[in-house]
Structures are given as structure tokens and as C-alpha cells.
């Protein structure tokens, strides 16, 4: 994968961590000594953000000897990035690059686990990433084998109950109005019950998003709407994890919407810095 963060963003990350130089390294008078730096996985993980980490090293003055790409699986103990340079340049990039890879790889690893738990099912991640981290979060989701459900408000028609509170008229009327205004878009409606799901499917919604409904409810919606032409896509959302993804797949769901990859422990990366 290419780098998703531009040089200006990477420069800003370095500036946040090293605004006025590295006081310790410079005070010890070791900044000019030749050095090597190794990044290794402490546990099995799916890598993400390695290209950005490598570019951070280069921006700090180091040289990349090798780097494994985002999306690659790394076993415990595997070295996936190796760099050379002065001790000053490598110390400058060390912590920012390490932290970036750890957070991104945590997202990618959790996404991959959900994907592997439900073979043949599309796993789509929501836009509930930490504000300001969208670009890297999207890359991490894709590295894990998932796709993005919705990048922002500008690209999809997703009608929440919070929208419907302001609507009058039958659902079939405003669904038809949406289709006239944006005929190339699918109309997604989020619901909180089987009854709502069936009603909005009959009113013409293309996708029924089930908010925190269990697999049994998803199966009931699929069975109740399979005779429609065409039947809607039934997409569980809210609470979908690697623990229940297989159950939703067994219920007949072919699209799972989740925020779970964004929340959890970062991956654990060991960094070794030593004289060259």
C-alpha cells in the first residue's frame, strides 16, 4: 500500500514530538554515532501504517533497509522494519513511528479477525474512528481485509431515527423522494426492531441496518423480506465483533457493519536501537 499520510502531516507529527531537538540524545553527545533500528512484532499481528513509519524515519534523516507492507501478517518475534542512520535521526523517529504502527496495526488485526470469523461476508467499518485519524484508520481497516461502510455524511443516504423524527408522511413517500433526488444511491434505513425492519423494507429501502439486534432477529428479518423484489440487504450494526460475526453469517447476513476494530489495545511492537 502507498503512504496515506502526506509529508506535511508526517512533518507535523515529528514536530509535535521533537519541537526543539532531542535533549537527551544531544546532551549525551551520541547523536552523530552510526546506528540501526529494528521494529519487531511482540505478538502475532496484521501490519498497518508501516509505510508511514518508514517515511517518518526518512523524514528524520534515517535510511530504510527493509519494510514489510501494510496488510502483511507478522508472527511473534518477526522483524518487519529495519533502518539505519545516525543515533540522532533514529531516536528522532523512534517513538512516533512505533506508536503509529501500533495503533494502526491494532485496528488492522481486529478487522482481520472479524473478516476471518465470517468467511464470504463483507465486513464494513463505520466512521467512528478517533477524530483526526480517519486517513490512517481507513488504511488500517483495508489492511485488515475489511471495507469502509461510510466515509462521511456526503456520500451515502443513511436515514437514522434521528432523521425520521423530523419527517411526516408515509415512509414510502420520503423513500421515493430520496430516490428521485439521488437515483444512483442506495437508501439505507437504520431500525431498532424486526417490525420496523420489515415495514421499511416493504416501503422500498434498499438496505436495512439493524441497530444492536441479535442474530436471531437478523434471521427473522431476512426470512420476512426474502419474497420482496428485490429483497433488501440486511446489515447488522452495533455490537458486531469477532465473537458473534459467525452467528450473523449463519443467520444469512452478507454484510456486517462494525466499529469494533477502532476500539481496543494497540498492537505491541518492540523497537531495538543499537550501534551499527
Can you offer a commentary on this structure?
The strands form four sheets. The chain has a four-stranded antiparallel sheet with strand order 3-5-1-13, covered by helices on one side. A four-stranded parallel sheet has the order 8-9-10-11. With 276 residues, it is of the alpha/beta class. It contains ten helices and 13 strands. It is elongated. 38% of the residues are buried. The two termini are 29 Å apart. The protein folds into two domains: 7-114 and 264-275, Quinolinate phosphoribosyl transferase, N-terminal domain (Aldehyde Oxidoreductase, domain 3); 119-261, TIM Barrel, CATH 3.20.20.
First-residue to last-residue Cα separation = 29 Å
Number of strands: 13
Count of helix runs: 10
Largest sheet: 4 strands, antiparallel
Judged by helices, strands and strand pairing, the structural class is alpha/beta
> What's the arrangement of strands in the largest beta sheet?
3-5-1-13
Gyration radius over CA: 23 Å
**pLDDT average, as an integer?**
97
Poorly predicted segments: none
Under the CATH scheme, which architecture of the largest domain would be assigned?
Answer: Alpha-Beta Barrel
Residue fraction in strands: 15-25%
Shape: elongated
For CATH, the homologous superfamily of the largest domain is named as: Aldolase class I
Family: Belongs to the NadC/ModD family.
Organism: Azospirillum thiophilum
Protein name: Putative pyrophosphorylase ModD
GO molecular function: nicotinate-nucleotide diphosphorylase (carboxylating) activity
Amino acid at each position: 500500500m502507498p503512504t496515506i499520510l502526506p509529508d506535511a502531516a508526517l512533518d507535523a507529527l515529528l514536530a509535535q514530538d521533537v519541537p526543539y531537538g532531542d535533549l537527551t540524545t544531544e546532551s549525551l553527545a551520541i547523536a552523530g554515532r552510526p546506528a540501526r533500528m529494528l521494529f519487531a512484532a511482540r505478538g502475532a499481528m496484521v501490519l498497518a501504517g508501516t509505510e508511514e513509519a518508514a517515511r517518518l524515519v526518512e523524514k528524520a534523516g534515517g535510511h530504510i533497509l527493509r519494510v514489510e507492507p501494510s496488510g502483511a501478517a507478522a508472527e511473534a518475534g518477526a522483524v518487519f522494519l529495519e533502518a539505519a542512520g545516525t543515533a540522532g535521526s533514529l531516536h528522532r523517529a523512534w517513538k512516533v513511528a512505533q506508536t503509529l504502527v501500533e495503533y494502526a496495526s491494532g485496528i488492522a488485526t481486529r478487522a482481520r479477525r472479524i473478516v476471518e470469523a465470517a468467511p464470504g461476508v463483507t465486513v464494513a467499518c463505520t466512521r467512528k474512528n478517533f477524530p483526526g485519524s480517519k486517513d490512517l484508520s481507513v488504511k488500517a481497516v483495508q489492511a485488515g481485509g475489511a471495507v469502509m461502510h461510510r466515509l462521511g455524511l456526503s456520500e451515502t443516504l443513511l436515514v437514522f431515527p434521528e432523521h425520521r423524527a423530523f419527517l411526516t408522511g408515509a415512509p414510502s413517500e420520503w423513500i421515493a423522494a430520496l430516490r428521485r433526488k439521488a437515483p444512483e444511491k442506495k437508501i439505507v434505513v437504520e431500525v431498532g426492531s424486526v417490525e420496523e425492519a420489515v415495514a421499511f423494507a416493504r416501503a422500498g429501502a434498499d438496505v436495512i441496518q439493524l441497530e444492536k439486534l441479535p442474530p436471531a432477529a437478523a434471521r427473522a428479518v431476512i426470512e420476512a423480506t426474502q419474497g420482496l423484489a428485490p429483497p433488501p440487504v440486511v446489515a447488522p450494526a452495533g455490537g458486531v465483533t469477532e465473537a458473534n460475526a459467525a452467528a450473523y453469517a449463519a443467520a444469512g447476513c452478507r454484510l456486517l457493519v462494525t466499529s469494533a476494530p477502532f476500539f481496543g489495545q494497540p498492537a505491541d511492537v518492540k523497537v531495538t536501537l543499537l550501534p551499527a
